[in-house]
Amino acid sequence: MKAPAAGGAQHTFTVEHDGAPRLDLLVAQAVGLSRSQSATLIADGRVLVDGKPERASFRAPAGTTVVVDVPPPPGREVIAEQIPVSVVYEDAHLIVVDKVAGMVVHLAPGNWTGTLVNALKGRGQGLAEGGPEERQGLVHRLDKDTSGLMVVAKTDDALRILSKAIAERRVMRRYAALSWGHLPDDTVTVDKPIGRDPNDRIRMAVVGEGRPARTDFLRLARFGACDLLRCHLHSGRTHQIRVHLAALGHPVVGDDIYGGGGARKIVGLPPQRHFLHAAWLVFNHPVSGERLEFQSPLPDELRHSLLTVAELPDLFAAPNPLEYFDFYRADR
User: Fold this and answer.
1) Secondary structure class of 279 (helix, strand, coil)
2) Where does residue 330 rank: exposed (0-12), middle (13-18), buried (19+ CB within 10 A)?
3) Rounded distance, CA 268 to CA 255, Å?
């Protein structure tokens, strides 16, 4: 019996052997719930055994099909907060923001306030309502300590069209990263599935049963201790760039979760900051079809870090050091 992940969804599995535990324990093990949670689902009629409800003490024989309907978690009211947010483009359909490092994108356990969604609500922002309130308008996400460009939908139509464009890889998202050590070649593609780390649920990892994920890496410069990379996402899995670089043995500089958090003084990087920035975003407008392109220079702390490792005097005069390294050249 293979255990699917828990969440707001329907899970179906077949009992493979006789002698299975009682139904509440069986469901808990299969779907990844506590025993009390599975017992509640059984009592609410959300668990069907060969098409009919059974008691929590029922023991299903081999060959039995069990369907478990796990409802989504209840929504949480999003409070409008007066939090500064950098807006680089806005019209009636969408808004493009340049997120600062340290800001969580949406509400989640431990982060019920202070998120980007709270900040947008504080602007009196109307957002697409096609998803949970705590994630209203979100087309894609950035990690808490990753800075840079994000597009947020104001209307349900814009959310649907932009989400489809991302799924079909018609939205170009390119990130600047410093990675420890040196890649084996100037261009490297990692095409490996990503899922929860079976040994640490906080982390993601390359796992055989994960979701498909592909990242293209282009080395723009090679320094003494690290490489400056342009990272092109073809998919958008949680922590994708960080996981793929860690899998190569060259984690993102400053990444405390995936092995790149040491030796910050060498690269002039402040605590609780990794060197990953969403610097280039290109997509077609969901209504007009117009090509929209946005570029974000490195934040001050990352610019300082790059100047520290590069040791190139010319960089100090460059308003955006990424341009010096041809980061925004489309033919590379």
Assistant:
1) strand
2) exposed
3) 14
Find the helix or strand (DSSP H, E) in which 253 lies. none
H helix runs in 168-299, sequence order: 240-247, 264-267
- Any residues with CB less than 8 A from the CB of 138 and at least 6 apart, and which? 105, 106, 117, 131, 152, 153
The total number of residues shown for the chain amounts to 332
**β partners of residue 6:** none
Q: What is the pLDDT of residues 36-53, one digit of tens each?
A: 788 889 998 999 999 999
Summarize the confidence of residues 80-100 as an average pLDDT: 96
Determine the Cα–Cα distance for residues 213 and 141; give it in Å rounded to an integer.
15
Q: Rg of the chain's alpha carbons, rounded to an integer? A: 23
Q: Can you spell out the DSSP letters for 81-120?
A: -----EEEEE-SSEEEEEEPTT--SS-BTTBSSSSHHHHH
pTM of the full predicted structure? 0.77
pLDDT in tens, 168-192: 999 999 999 999 999 999 999 999 9
Q: Which residues are known catalytic residues? A: 143
Question: What domains are defined for the chain?
Answer: 9-70 (3.10.290.10), 86-167 (3.30.2350.10), 172-280+298-324 (3.30.2350.10)
